[in-house]
Structure formats: structure tokens, C-alpha cells
Amino acid sequence: MEQIERIGISVDKNLLNSFDKLISRQGYQNRSEAIRDLIRERISAEKLKNPKTKTVAAVLIVYEHQATQLMEKLTSLQHSHLLETISSLHIHIDDHKCMEAIILRGQVGKIKKTAEQLISLKGVTHGKINLMLVEPE
Fold first, then answer.
1. In terms of Cα–Cα distance, which of 131, 126, 123, 113 is closest to 41?
2. Domain limits of the chain?
């Protein structure tokens, strides 16, 4: 069973009021859970600085679907990194633009390299990498 330790902190009243409004809008039931999430987020961000940390990532790209050979290059990159690619989802945005959500798994350094290769392809207009820590706390 998980042990809980109670702590006390001092916070400026205005800062606490702003925090309470924020967590209320986000649906938190109490400050403790919101603070635990903030702690997890900071620990995760620190661990993700290590290129050898295991992670999963969502790579989102928006591109012109008529771009020359872009689909072939996207598919080729995903197949060449098959151990890292978990899944992908293709979305039609409008007559000219598509979005691809590609889920990768592996070490931070390798995932960033693969994601940057995908984002830098000619025809990709927007790209974003979202890394999520998968190691235990």
C-alpha cells in the first residue's frame, strides 16, 4: 500500500487564490491532487532531459496532401523505425491539408531524432512532439 506523508507549505494568498481558481476550472477535487500532478510533471520533465530515458511520444504533423512524395516518405520513415512506431492515425482536415498522429516508443534521443525527421519533411507545415514518461515514479 502506498504511504502518504502530510506536509505544510506557505503560499502567498493571491497566488493560492489563483491556484484554487485554476484547479477548480480543471476539475480537481482538492489541492493535494493538483499539487501531486505538478510534482509528477516536474519530475517527468527532468527525467525526459536524459536521451536514454524510455518514453512514448505523439508526433503530430499537418501537411499539404498534394506535396510530392510526402506520403511515401512518411510511410518509409515509419517503417524504417518500426520498433519505435506503435501506431499512426491519418486525418483529413480539408481539401488540401491532412494531419498525421504518429505514436512512437523508445528512448528520448531516438524518438526526438525520428520525430524531427518527420517534421522536417518538405510539405509538412506544422509539427509538434509530445513526450510522456513511462518509467515508474
1. 131
2. 13-47, 54-133
- As a whole number, the mean pLDDT across the chain is 89
Burial class (CB in 10 A: 0-12, 13-18, 19+), 79: exposed
DSSP H helical ranges for the chain? 13-26, 31-47, 70-80, 108-119
> Minimal CA–CA distance to 94: which of 73, 117, 64, 123?
64
Q: Could you count the other beta carbons within 10 Å of the beta carbon of residue 60? A: 18
Domain 54-133 has CATH 3.30.70.1150: yes
What's the confidence (pLDDT) of residue 81?
A: 64
C-alpha cell at 15: 497566488
> How many Cα neighbours within 13 Å face the side chain of 117?
16
